[in-house]
Amino acid sequence: MCLEGTEATSDEVAAQKRPGPSGHFVNRSTDVVIVGAGAIGCCIAYRLAQKGIRVSVVERERPGSGASASAGGILGAQYEATGPGPLLDLLLASREAYPDFAAELQADSGIDIEFRLSGGLRLILDEEDEAEARRCLQWQKAAGLPAELLSASSTLAEESALSPEIRGAILFPQEAQVGNRKMVEALATACGRLGVEVLCGEEAVRFHPREHRLESLETSSQSLSAQTFILAGGAWSQELASRMGVHLPVFPVRGQMIQLQINPPPFRRLLFHRQAYLVSKPVGRIILGSTMEKVGFDRRVTAEGLHRLTGAAARMSPLLGGAEVVQTWACFRPGTPDGLPILGRVQPYENLLAATGHFRNGILLTPITGQILAEMVAGVAPSIPIEPFRPDRF
Questions:
Q1: Of 69, 177, 223, 305, which is most buried by a Cβ count within 10 Å?
Q2: What count of other Cβ atoms lies within 10 Å of the Cβ of residue 184?
Q3: Are strands 32-35 and 228-231 parallel, antiparallel or unpaired?
Q4: pLDDT per residue as tens digits for the range 339-356
Q5: 3-state secondary structure (DSSP) of residue 281
Q6: Mean pLDDT, 10 residues at a time, over the chain (394 residues)?
Q7: In angstroms, how far apart are the furthest CA atoms of the chain?
Q8: What gap in Å lies between CA 4 and CA 288, rounded to an integer?
Q9: Contact 335, 250 (CB under 8 A)
């Protein structure tokens, strides 16, 4: 089992890519092959293995090495939704699952994934924010969601380190956060204990179809046959789908992010604004994000992106102007044309499922996606309606 944050030795890497004794690919079989070992792929494997299903996960790098390890760990269902509808229902269902999910993972892996019901504040700094806040509060109240409009003084009573120019905020008391890297580590560890095989450093080279089924996947060192294949490749899902002759309109959206350090930690809540967000982590770490740029697979961190984020942070809290910049990075979130994830069977194949296109809600949607895909593999009707998320809607 390869764990995110660990380094494979040269012997291990060689073993992962070594062909069989005769110099040819090793031919092996399993029940389910999952391509992609981010939080989504690992959670699906975890749920399937709990049902006694044999699972192999193919991962080009290491578990969680993509967007899963680079995220802020925000579980912001109400902040992320723009109105009632299927996406809101999916986000809320997954957020509701998190307390039990976190406890279950800790029991199965021995790792605390740092789930915390911190609540969130959607900050109001100008007239544009006020107009958006009114619209947001109106539809959320109509939907029966917990949300409260705070005055400027009440907002500062909640978070005294915010800008004195603050005009108010919407309080979302049920928003939460999680340690996303810890979560991937816990999922990978739990999978290993359940017998899931994670093939690290393995490229999904080509798929072999026969009529309306996929028969096998050829990696850099072996051929894996299975009854079911699941594509959970994040921003690379379209590239992988094209190797099967399938079009999935998933594209990368670059997100630049900054880790700040300031002691003592100044904030308790998640802080949201239309220009940036702030996530307080243990020991004074603050995650500042995130840009949303359609620039292809360009991983550069740019001066313009950093300037935009630091400017927004200073506007939210002048205190952050003196914070130490510890790290900067960029990751690729898997976007879709309509902003909805892609879940379900991929035509024309009877045994190919997709779990991708989660954009910047991959961590939040991990528990519900794992549940839905495991139900589908087991032949059980999904507990959440997935019609709006079907791959063939495009």
A1: 177
A2: 30
A3: parallel
A4: 999 999 999 999 999 999
A5: coil
A6: 41 38 69 97 98 96 90 96 96 98 98 97 97 96 97 97 97 98 96 96 93 93 96 97 94 97 93 96 92 97 97 95 94 97 97 97 98 96 94 95
A7: 74
A8: 22
A9: yes
Cα 73 from Cα 178, distance rounded (Å) = 5
- Of the candidates 247, 261, 108, 278, which has an alpha carbon nearest to the alpha carbon of residue 188? 108
CB 345 within 8 A of CB 20: no
For residue 208, what are the β-bridge partners?
A: 216
Instruction: Write out the two tokens for 1.
Output: 């089992």
The verdict on residue 103 lying in a domain is no
Chosen domain end from 302, 320, 335: 335
DSSP state of 311: H
Closest C-alpha to 68, from 78, 55, 59: 59
Tell whether the torsion through CA atoms of 248, 357, 234 and 332 is positive or negative.
positive
Residues 168 and 257 grouped into a single domain: yes
| pLDDT computed for residue 264 by the predictor | 87
The answer to whether 42 and 184 are in contact (CB under 8 A) is yes
Q: Do 126 and 66 have their domain in common?
A: no
Residue ending a domain, choose from 311, 335, 359: 335
What is the C-alpha R_g of the chain? 21
Identify whether residues 260 and 330 lie together within a single domain: yes
In angstroms, what CA-CA distances link 176 with 98, 108, 142, 144, 157?
9, 22, 22, 19, 20
Q: What residue numbers bound the domain in which 46 lies?
A: 10-70+181-250+338-393
Neighbours of 87 (CB within 10 A): 22
Q: At 347, which CATH number?
A: 3.50.50.60
Residue 83 lies in a domain: no
Across the strands, what pairs with 257? 289, 329
pTM: 0.93
At residue 353, what are phi and psi to the nearest 5 degrees? -115, 155
